[in-house]
């Protein structure tokens, strides 16, 4: 547990001293989502109906954008080697790192999503649906994405490969997350989607740290 | 295992010993101590090039094994195999009677300084050390200052690692070795980018480590004969170039 906290704390320190990397995913998220209202016909119903899906796609792309840098700096400066040599708590260490990464990307995106809801004219009572969906879905996006980032850490331009490996695994999260909004628009219960996203998150949280540690050990070799 | 059995048939070696690869070799043969670390029939292949094969040696406490070889002869690969970063094509590394791959304790007893310093640029010198110290479960702030002072970089304690010179970064990487006692130090080109004063400092901490029953395996392109490590030194010479399979 202390390893997890130590890595979490160190990642936050690093991110606050490199604020460019901290705000980049949020800016990217907002730009993608804002381009849609500008480029589509000014029909209230159209924007409302696609708004939830667009915000989810923007969240997926913003997460994907931030993944390449997750382990690359550690690989370049040798701190990853040091972590792998003393690998007693490598899964816990990597989980701490991934949680810190999520708080700087997924959590910020979730907190900012109500602002984007306004631009799509999404009713206020559906704000929380999108917020809860993103809050449950984005940690899974980061955890699963981290496996791809670990597998491609030694590649100079691994971003495209991460997308190819990871995007198919994002589809269930996208379906259930965006599905929450459309269900809610029709006045239907969204609890089943909430449970499914929570189940995916539990599974990712349990298995992904070990997969990340295994991938890092294999790729550094 | 044949290579290891073959050690017993070797004539008694005098210290320092020089051995060429492919011959079973034990450092500190004259003492009856069990080796801390034993490499057994190691082979390393990169692409279609065999860097080394049938490489066996023992490393005992209070000995420094100096791995010598031309560029590309597999020195760094050997060190990375020994600390478990790379896997060997064949053979095993045995630490205190336990296979390295299966022993978390063995890895915890090893310290590695490679070509990369293992420092975070955005963190200050003391923050870098503090992070390592906390990972070891220790929390003595005064000891951090002592480590920096021993490497003569205490005045850089609050500077970000990115603003340190190359030599200061190397010294900071070495300060990490002093944080907690590790039995085996694996050092890849430890004196690169270090000035004369820094080199003698690093040599002195290496000697302290050896005198306190530690062991070192290092690569270095120049002779260690004139250094203070010399009395503890054995040599392992890798072939100048590998061969294709």
Chain-wise SSE layout:
The complex is a heterodimer of chains A (221) and B (245).
Chain A: H1 2-16, H2 19-39, H3 44-67, H4 69-77, H5 79-85, H6 90-104, H7 106-119, H8 127-151, H9 159-185, H10 191-220
Chain B: H1 2-7, E1 18-20, E2 25-26, E3 37-46, E4 49-59, E5 64-68, H2 75-82, E6 90-95, E7 98-99, H3 104-108, E8 110-113, H4 125-135, H5 141-150, H6 166-175, E9 184-188, H7 196-211, E10 215-219, E11 233-237, E12 243-244
Parallel strand pairs in B: 1-11, 2-4, 5-10, 5-11, 8-9, 9-10
Antiparallel strand pairs in B: 3-4, 3-6, 4-12, 6-7
Helix pairs in contact in B: 4-5
Protein model, in words:
Chain A is mainly alpha-helical. Chain A has one domain. In chain A, 85% of the residues lie in helices and 0% in strands. Chain A has ten helices and no strands. Chain A has helices spanning 2-16, 19-39, 44-67, 69-77, 79-85, 90-104, 106-119, 127-151, 159-185, 191-220. In chain A, helix 1 (2-16) packs parallel to helix 6. Chain B starts with a helix and ends with a strand. In chain B, helix 4 (125-135) crosses helix 5. In chain B, strands 1-11-5-10-9-8 form a six-stranded parallel beta sheet, sandwiched between helices. In chain B, strands 2, 3, 4, 6, 7 and 12 form a six-stranded mixed beta sheet that branches. The longest helix of chain B has 16 residues, at 196-211. In chain B, a hairpin with a 2-residue loop joins strand 3 (37-46) and strand 4. In chain B, 27% of the residues lie in helices and 24% in strands. By secondary structure, chain B is α/β, with parallel strands linked by helices. Residues 1-15 and 27-32 of chain B have low confidence and may be disordered. The chains are: A mainly alpha (221), B alpha/beta (245). At the A-B interface, helix 1 and helix 5 of A face helix 3 and helix 4 of B.
């Amino acid at each position: 547990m202390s390893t997890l906290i130590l890595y979490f704390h160190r990642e936050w320190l690093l991110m606050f001293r490199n604020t460019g990397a901290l705000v980049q995913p949020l800016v990217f998220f907002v730009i993608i989502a804002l381009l849609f209202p500008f480029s589509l016909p000014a029909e209230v119903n159209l924007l409302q109906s696609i708004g939830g899906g667009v915000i989810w796609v923007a969240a997926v792309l913003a997460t994907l954008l931030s993944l390449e840098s997750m382990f690359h700096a550690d690989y370049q400066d040798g701190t990853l080697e040091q972590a792998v040599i003393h690998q007693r708590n490598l899964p816990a260490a990597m989980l701490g790192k991934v949680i810190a990464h999520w708080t700087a990307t997924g959590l910020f995106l979730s907190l900012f999503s109500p602002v984007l809801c306004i631009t799509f004219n999404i009713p206020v009572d559906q704000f929380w649906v999108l917020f809860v969906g993103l809050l449950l879905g984005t940690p899974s996006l980061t955890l699963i994405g981290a496996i791809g980032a670990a597998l491609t850490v030694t590649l100079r331009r691994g971003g495209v490969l991460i997308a190819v490996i990871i995007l198919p695994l994002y589809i269930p999260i996208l379906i259930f997350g965006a599905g929450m909004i459309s269900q809610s628009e029709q006045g239907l219960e969204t609890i089943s989607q909430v449970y499914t996203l929570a189940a995916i998150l539990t599974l990712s949280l349990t298995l992904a740290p070990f997969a990340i540690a295994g991938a890092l050990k294999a790729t550094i070799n | 295992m044949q290579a290891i059995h073959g050690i017993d048939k070797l004539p008694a070696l005098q210290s320092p010993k020089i051995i060429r690869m492919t011959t079973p070799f034990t450092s500190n043969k004259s003492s009856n101590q069990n080796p801390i670390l034993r490499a057994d029939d190691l082979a390393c292949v990169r692409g279609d090039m065999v860097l080394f094969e049938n490489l066996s040696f023992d490393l005992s406490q209070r000995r420094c094994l100096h791995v010598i070889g031309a560029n590309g002869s597999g020195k760094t690969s050997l060190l990375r195999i020994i600390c478990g970063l790379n896997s060997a094509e064949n053979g095993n590394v045995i630490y205190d009677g336990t296979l390295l791959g299966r022993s978390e304790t063995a890895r915890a007893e090893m310290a590695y300084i490679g070509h990369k310093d293992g420092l975070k640029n955005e963190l200050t010198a003391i923050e870098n050390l503090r992070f390592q110290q906390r990972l070891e479960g220790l929390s003595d702030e005064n000891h951090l200052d002592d480590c920096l002072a021993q490497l003569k970089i205490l005045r850089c304690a609050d500077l970000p690692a990115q603003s340190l010179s190359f030599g200061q970064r190397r010294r900071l990487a070495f300060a990490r070795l002093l944080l907690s006692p590790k039995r085996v130090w694996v050092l890849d080109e430890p004196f690169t980018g270090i000035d004369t004063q820094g080199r003698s400092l690093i040599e002195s901490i290496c000697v302290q480590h050896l005198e306190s029953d530690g062991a070192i395996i290092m690569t270095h392109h120049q002779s260690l004969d004139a250094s203070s490590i010399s009395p503890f030194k054995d040599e392992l010479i890798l072939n100048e170039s590998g061969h294709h399979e």
